[in-house]
Specification:
The complex is a heterotrimer of chains A (918), B (76) and C (122). Chain A has 33 helices and 7 strands. Chain A is mainly alpha-helical and 918 residues long. Chain B has 76 residues and is mainly alpha-helical. Chain B contains 3 helices and 2 strands, in the order ααββα. A two-stranded antiparallel ribbon of chain B has the order 1-2. The chains are: A mainly alpha (918), B mainly alpha (76), C alpha/beta (122). Chains in contact: A-B, A-C. Chains A and B meet through α4, α5, α10, α12 and α14 of A and α1, α2, β2 and α3 of B.
Chain lengths: 918, 76, 122
């Protein structure tokens, strides 16, 4: 492939990137945003995968096998917790208009300028090597592409102007300036940047998968083939051997913890996951899709590593370059070029986002506080703060990239790719304690964070950063054991004599110990200032509070002053717009000389925070707000009032739930009462009807007889008989109603005794014998020889049998056969059957005949009628004796009533339990 | 108000999943799989790591699937 | 010509007493023991007046009353309801369905006779 084509391709690619970013910005301005989309969001998070992933993983895999995976397993585990932790960070950042990690820490600990500055410093020092690493990768891979197979062991170090890395750095700076510093307000989304980075994530994934498939399936016969061949070579078998993990178990755990922290707190990750987040709901997708992306991009790392080892053997090819060297060695130049672009996109994506994130941090948390001190200088006045900020950010961007480039030139050949990345990881891991503790522990104090962060950072500098930068031999008095002769305890690789850990684990352990330990201890023994306590409450309880709670200022500034202040940073137009917007929402216009309401002052402070960081914004506000900021007591009162209101509303909710429940119960009870009332009404009206019927006959015949007209003696006699019979019927009915009411009331005056049911039946039979004789019906009854002991009230049981017998006799015609009565003891029961040969009972009526006053409507004419209470009474008596009463009947062939009563001796006889049966 | 109210147990379940995942992907459990046994021609440890990885991703996706609660659009 | 009265009740003794009273007053008397039987008889030969019990098996008095009023041939038959529950609502229902009058059980024999005579214009 011609050299000019290779030289031109990356710049053409960057041109494409510009076009994409420009297009995305255009769409954003016409409100057809591309970033409000969980997939773009996820792909932008994949900026995590840098050139380190693209080239370095393979290199690492050739030495340590699967250990390279820890860097991706950690983020997978962290992603599980995103919905819990990251969502809270996002919510806090959006409410407080926080735009960087440094600002997050500064804001949490009382808008501390010092902490913001320190965090920024750590980030810059920590990330610069990482940026350098990307430049190195771009440069090294480019050399491989150009000169393979001559120079494949590292970067060429030619003249400055011939160095492609410098040119790339310059173009990237241009890109970052164009798409990263257009707005002063850092909370404005950098849509162009996000979409470009998302696009790069697609390119690097496809590129890596392509080379992976090519190497694994075209060059070799699949992963099994590779494993077999590696296993056959004793020199390479080490890679498969899982027992040879460097640093052992602790190292593995440390890497996972380290990368969990990195995915949250690397400045570029904070930029894309928090600042550029459009919708918290996108986390739902990102939390599984991003780990899936990681898995895919790592799928072919091991096969490529194995293939490289087999293919190149002892040839001097840097394993970090296998990804490129394999297609090149096979003469697949186009594939190699595409792979190169993949690595290029991985590197540039990282550099762009990281440098923009750092630039915002540096300008808002490091430069701005200093600058504002000199804000009345004539030069600054002339340029205008607003434009000054933009210029500053651009300058800072260029400086940062130059810094990265310088670091790259200084240490160009010193390290393999992985270790530099891990050094940066340990640096950003220092942010984890102040942020995580600050989000969940209100007691974490500014002094604690300051001490912890400083301690952790110093340890990091001493144990990792300086040893990476400086050849130990350069330092005077340096020995292999420590910086200074005789001071073994200060050996940066084995601090305080701690040996047996690899450098990264060692540094992570000590820095975290000092960081967390210092933070916790100091926090426990210092008093928080008022503003710290307020911010702590706002951060920790962010989900419980509303945005309006973040109030600090009492209104002693005029609207005009506020607008003027805003205008200096946001521009006249935006400032006026913000004021108008507020007035519109309040529904009342604001005059410039009017006193500004506290809400407006707070809102203005937040707007300023987005532009110049929280600490500076606070300083600016206090410069125009006359009098005191709201006292601590005042603010805490507001916060407490909110907490109380929340508590009240929670209690109210609970109360109203309880009330609802009670209402439902009442409604049900009322329904039962209504139903009972209806039943009672019905009962009364039925009784009334049943009483009126015989009374009607009695009265009618009584009056007829009394009138004495035209009645012959036979008729007279007949009428008198009717009167007597109906009177008897009336008496019977009254007795039954009384019986029923007594039975309904439960045990009442019952006498519970041990009885032999045979005696009961005998009594009942003799009591009804007259009835049978009158009707001319015979009764056939069988008694068993053995006893049928039951517990019960003998009078009621006799009544039960009498009712059943008289019911049977009533429906039996003498010519159709006798009434049968059988008594037989079963297992635990006694069964009593009364069978008649009457007309029977239709199926649909069988359940209802036990209801009070239910009379089968389909009776044959002239049938003697009962009161309709007999069976209801029977049912009730049986119920109270823990028994069952059923009927079996085939219409036309008679009916059988079956009573089953439990034999004496069971639990049921315990009278104290009978309440349930009432 | 807190969006966690829509699915009160989701938070706990996610935390439990993270702990389980952390255990699955760390020693000492890994030591069980760090043998010379091959599965499908590949070292057991490799297969195990990728399988556990897929499992964790799938569980995360499952726990975060959109519930019946109202969708919240835009930013807070 | 003597007018016809149909007495409908499922209680044989009430039937007996009313039959006696009506005959005593000089009417031709028919009796039925349930609603269906009554309707059949009314359709075959509409009587001048029906004494109609409410609570009856098969078809109750209200239904019978309604059907009598709906049919052209029998529409002019006079109806007196015999109610036993003694509730206002029952009496109103009867009148609403087109009954001419009602008597509450237990009734005064004179009262029944008077009402029948009045309705039949005697």
């Amino acid at each position: 492939m011609p050299q000019w084509a290779i030289l031109l391709t990356p710049f053409l690619y960057l041109g494409l990137l510009f076009a994409i970013a420009y297009w995305a910005d255009l769409r954003a301005r016409s409100s057809r945003s591309l970033v409000n989309n969980p997939y773009v969001y996820t792909l932008s998070i994949a900026v995590y995968c840098t050139a380190w992933t693209f080239y370095g993983s393979v290199g690492r895999a050739t030495q340590d096998g699967v250990t390279f995976l820890t860097i991706y397993l950690g983020p997978t585990l962290a992603a599980v917790l995103w919905w819990v932790v990251l969502r809270k960070i996002i919510r806090i950042a959006h409410i407080h208009r926080i735009t960087s990690i440094a600002d997050f820490i500064a804001s949490r600990y009382g808008k501390s300028m010092l902490l913001g500055g320190l965090a920024t410093f750590i980030a810059v020092v920590g990330i610069t090597p990482y940026i350098a690493l990307q430049l190195k990768a771009v440069s090294a891979s480019f050399d491989v592409l150009l000169y393979y197979p001559e120079a494949t062991t590292g970067a060429a170090t030619g003249g400055l102007l011939e160095d492609k890395a410098l040119w790339v750095a310059a173009v990237l700076a241009l890109f970052a300036i164009l798409f990263g510093t257009r707005h002063v307000d850092a909370t404005e989304r950098l849509e162009g940047m996000v979409v470009a980075v998302a696009f790069e994530s697609i390119v690097k994934l496809i590129a890596f998968l392509s080379v992976g498939i090519f190497v694994t399936y075209i060059l070799f016969n699949g992963p099994m083939d590779l494993v077999d061949r590696v296993a056959a070579e004793p020199a390479m078998r080490e890679m498969l051997n899982p027992s040879g993990l460097p640093g052992g178990y602790t190292s593995w755990v440390a890497m996972i913890v380290l990368s969990m922290a990195a995915i949250l707190f690397l400045p570029r990750q904070f930029q894309v996951t928090v600042v550029e987040n459009v919708n918290e709901d996108h986390l739902r997708t990102a939390a599984w899709l991003f780990p899936l992306y990681l898995l895919l991009i790592n799928l072919f790392v091991l096969p490529i590593a194995m293939a490289g080892l087999i293919y190149f053997g002892d040839a001097p090819v840097d394993p970090d370059n296998y990804v490129l060297a394999l297609p090149l060695a096979e003469g697949r130049e186009l594939l190699a070029l595409f792979v190169y672009l993949g690595g290029f996109s991985a590197a540039t994506g990282m550099v762009i986002v990281a440098s923009i994130a750092l630039a915002i941090m540096v300008s808002n948390d490091l430069v701005m506080p200093t600058l504002l001190r000199f804000r009345h200088m004539p030069l600054i006045e002339r340029i205008g703060l607003r434009r000054l900020i933009v210029y500053l950010r651009r300058l800072i961007l260029i400086l940062l990239l130059m810094l990265g480039y310088t670091y790259f030139r200084l240490t160009a050949d010193a390290f393999a790719l992985v270790s530099i990345g891990l050094i940066s990881f340990v640096a950003v891991a220092q942010f984890a304690p102040p942020i995580l503790l600050g989000m969940y522990w209100k007691g974490a104090s500014r002094a604690g964070a300051l001490i912890g962060l400083t301690g952790g950072f110093i340890i990091w500098l001493y144990t990792l950063f300086i040893p990476s930068l400086v050849d130990p031999a350069w330092l005077p008095g340096m020995t292999p054991d420590g910086l200074f002769e005789g001071l073994h305890l200060l050996n940066p690789q084995a601090l305080f004599g701690l040996t047996g850990l690899d450098a990264i684990t060692h540094a992570l352990f000590w820095s975290m110990l000092f960081n967390i330990g210092g933070m916790v201890l100091v926090s426990l023994f210092t008093r928080q200032s008022n503003i710290e306590r307020i911010q702590a409450a706002l951060f920790v309880d962010v989900f419980e509070r509303s945005e309006r709670d973040a109030r600090f200022w009492q209104g002693t500034a005029t609207v005009g002053d506020l607008e003027a202040l805003l205008a200096r940073f946001t521009g006249e137009h935006e400032a006026a717009e913000a004021i108008r917007d507020y007035a519109r929402r309040q529904g009342a216009p604001l005059e410039p000389n009017q006193e500004a309401p506290p809400d407006l002052i707070n809102q203005s402070e937040r707007i300023l925070t987005g532009h110049i960081g929280s600490a500076s914004a606070r300083v600016m506000m206090s410069s125009i707000v006359k009098g005191e900021a709201l006292t601590f007591e005042g603010v805490m009162e507001i916060l407490d009032a909110t907490s109380r209101a929340i508590e009240y509303s929670r209690r109210l909710e609970q109360k109203s739930r309880e009330l609802e429940l009670a209402t439902a119960e009442l409604r049900a009870a009322n329904q039962r009462l209504t139903e009972l009332d209806r039943l009672k009404d019905e009962f009364v009206s039925m009784v009334s009807h049943e009483l009126r019927t015989p009374l009607t006959s009695i009265r009618a015949f009584g009056e007829i007889l009394l009138s004495g007209k035209d009645i012959n003696p036979d008729q007279q006699r007949e009428f008198m008989q009717v009167i007597v019979k109906e009177s008897e019927r009336l008496t019977r009915l009254i007795n039954q109603v009384l019986d029923l009411s007594r039975i309904e009331s439960g045990w009442g005056d019952w006498q519970l005794k041990d009885l032999d049911l045979r005696g009961v039946v005998e009594d009942a039979v003799s009591a009804t014998s007259q009835l049978f004789t009158d009707r001319g019906v015979t009764l056939e009854w069988r008694q068993p020889d053995q006893e049928c002991p039951i517990k019960g009230d003998s009078d009621r049981l006799i009544q039960l049998v009498i009712n059943l017998l008289s019911n049977a006799v009533k429906f039996t015609q003498p010519e159709r056969g006798p009434v049968h009565l059988t008594l037989q003891p079963l297992d635990t029961m006694v069964e009593l059957q009364v069978r008649d040969s009457g007309p029977g009972i239709p199926t649909q009526e069988q359940q209802r005949i036990f209801e009070k006053f239910h009379q089968i409507s389909d009776q044959q004419a002239g049938k003697p009628k009962g009161s309709g209470l007999g069976l209801a009474i029977c049912k009730r008596i049986v119920d109270l004796h823990w028994g069952t009463l059923d009927v079996e009947s085939v219409p036309g062939e008679g009916a059988t009533f079956i009573v089953r009563l439990p034999l004496a001796g069971g639990d049921h006889c315990d009278i104290s339990r009978d309440t349930e049966h009432r | 108000m807190s969006a966690t109210r829509g699915q009160p147990r989701r938070r706990e379940r996610l935390i439990a999943l993270a702990i389980i995942g952390f255990l699955l992907l760390n020693y000492p459990l890994l030591a069980i799989f760090a043998t010379d046994i091959r599965v499908l021609g590949l070292p057991l440890l490799w297969v195990y790591l990728f399988a556990a990885w897929v499992l964790i991703i799938a569980c995360t996706g499952f726990l975060l699937r959109r519930g019946r609660g109202p969708r919240q659009d835009g930013q807070p | 010509m003597a007018k016809t009265v149909l007495i409908v009740d499922d209680e044989p003794n009430i039937l007996l007493s009313l039959e006696f009273l009506m005959k005593q007053s000089g009417y031709v008397v028919q009796t039925a023991e349930n609603g269906e039987q009554a309707l059949e008889m009314i359709r075959q030969a509409p009587p001048d007046l029906v004494l109609l019990d409410v609570m009856m098996p098969r078809k109750d008095g209200f239904q019978v009353c309604q059907e009598i009023r709906q049919e052209h041939d029998t529409g002019s038959v006079r109806i007196i309801m015999l109610t036993a529950k003694g509730r206002h609502s029952e009496q109103e229902t009867g009148l609403g369905l087109g009954a001419d009058d009602y008597v509450t059980k237990p009734f005064s024999t004179q009262d029944v006779v008077h009402k029948v005579q009045r309705l039949l214009g005697d």
